[in-house]
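User: Some background: our group keeps a shared notebook of sequences we're curious about, and every so often someone picks one and asks for a predicted structure to add to the entry. Today it's my turn. The entry only has the sequence so far, pasted here. Could you supply the structure so I can complete it?
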Amino acid sequence: ITINEVTSVEQVDNLIRTEDDWLGMHFDYGKQTVRVTDKVTQKMMAAGLAIRGDEAPTVRQLAVWFGVVTFATGVLRLRFSQFYNAMKLLRNISAAMVDEARLEEKVTIPRSAMDAMQGWETQVLANIPQDLTECVNHPPTMTIATDASAWGWGAIMVQPDGGMTTHSQQWTEEEKKQPWVHQSVRTELEGVWRALCRWSNPNTEQAVHVLTDSITAASAINNKRSASFEIDTMAERIQRAFGHHIVATHIPGTMNPADGISRGASTISDTEKSHLAELQGMVELDEFGRPRARLTVTSLLRDEGLGPCVVDAHSVDPADPHSSNPA
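Assistant: Of course. Here's the predicted structure to add to the notebook entry:
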């Protein structure tokens, strides 16, 4: 039926409440919600029965269970940090899971891990629909500006009421020997990770806005992935530990208020404070929940005789030329 053929309120209702299944996700366009499909929950129950049989489960059976449950956890926006003992088991068997010769090995599941897995499975099978528009214009509970350097990392946390806290830390002698300390994007994400660990509670609902002068780090946080294995691992680590609405915005390095303390300064300068006040107004979400910044455009419009003005521009993923708004 098309909109031109509608002749009754009932038909309008049927049009609005169209639902669809796609790649294991069930979308309700009328209610604007998403959950996992019934097929996924059936696989979840079958995998659960397999690992709770009379005999100890195999690595293969556990791999199937973890595969289904982690997919559903992402769709249903559950926090991985709730299931620490189960995640610890996954880490312990991860080497065997990628070794075909070990897939049929039996695994003894500790009671603490089994309890965590059962609680995890219960939450997944509840399959509570999630609001697709939940993240749009979600008010931030904190804004964090971070930076990293050869000296160490620094961060500034600003609360909605204007309260500000700073923290910085020098890399240890052991960390200075690690290859990642010399990779700028990796250290930027390490700074974000440590700032979140210091100020953010993974067991409470929070909306965190991160300001970073690394385009790649901001893209990895927002997309929850990266083409680089190491950066992808860090991005996933941040999202798994903190199930918040984490939005990152790229800022110019010359305006990063955490630059000084990341290089060993004990306080932030008046100039950096003014930058911070200006940057706090930059972090916005568009109607699709994507980060955007207010950018002043001068040269192009001056050529047209229009003078400077302010426009909205989406953050651009350099790896994806189609990710920006053509407007």
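Suggested note for the entry: Residues 85 and 238 are 18 Å apart (CA to CA). The first strand starts at residue 19 and ends at 22.
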